[in-house]
Amino acid sequence: MMEKLKLGVFELTDCGGCALNMLFLYERLFDLLEFYEIEEFHMATSLDGGTHYDVALVTGTVSTRRDLNLLKDVRNRSDYLIALGTCATHGSVQASVEMPIREKLKAVYGDGGNPMGALDSKPVVEYVAVDFALPGCPYDKEEVYQALIDIAKGVEPVRKDYPVCLECKLNEYECVLVKKGLPCLGPITYGGCNAVCLRSGLGCIGCRGPLPGEVNPAGEYEVLKSLGYDEEYILRKFKTFSRWEP
Ligand code: SF4
Ligand code: SF4
Questions:
Q1: What pLDDT digit, counting tens, does each position of 96-123 carry?
Q2: How far is the CA of 86 from the centre of ligand 1 (A)?
Q3: Which domains does the chain have, with CATH numbers?
Q4: I need a surface site. Which of 38, 63, 95, 193 has the fewest CB within 10 A?
């Protein structure tokens, strides 16, 4: 029988949603357990971490020195590291706040210093090399399931390189940008969620982060301007989940 791979799930600073989302695989978790032995998963087991991980899933942003130390340690002790969720891939809301940590600490603690060892929040990908980045707030659990099955079978997981807009079209959903004038970021956001918000007639708020490459944020900006949204609103919308400058 094939030896099981050692899997660790680690949380840096985040809301816990991405770690919890793994548990919502429910009985399909048992399929993964045919290939993996879970060595570390704070939310699901009290086992203390093993010395080496074949695969590590890391959620959250680096927002404290403890996060940074944990991340470096996990990177050193794992063969394949997945940055999981938009906090880890793009920084999410906490990294999009532009005020430097010095000023935030001053506002909250006055001259009380930095009791938690806080750092400016940054995504995992800005500190260590990652083998795979899977965005989403939270990510689509089918994607992480497929990625883990692929890795277990020796296949490199497929990276999505198309926008949410494409999935919206493939599902034949109504375009809320054109038909309703909603500020939908589907044309410039990483696909992979199967355009789930569009299924309910809502605009995409860009929770999977901006897609690099051939998308056209300037065009999106102009369309939103022409629909009557002001510059400040549009830029705040663009920056909700990332420090990305459109
Ligand atoms: S990406 Fe979203 S759901 Fe996941 S940990 Fe961050 S805030 Fe929570
Ligand atoms: S449609 Fe947009 S906001 Fe909704 S889950 Fe997908 S990327 Fe996130």
A1: 888 888 898 898 888 888 988 999 999 9
A2: 6
A3: 5-152 (3.40.50.700), 164-238 (no CATH)
A4: 38
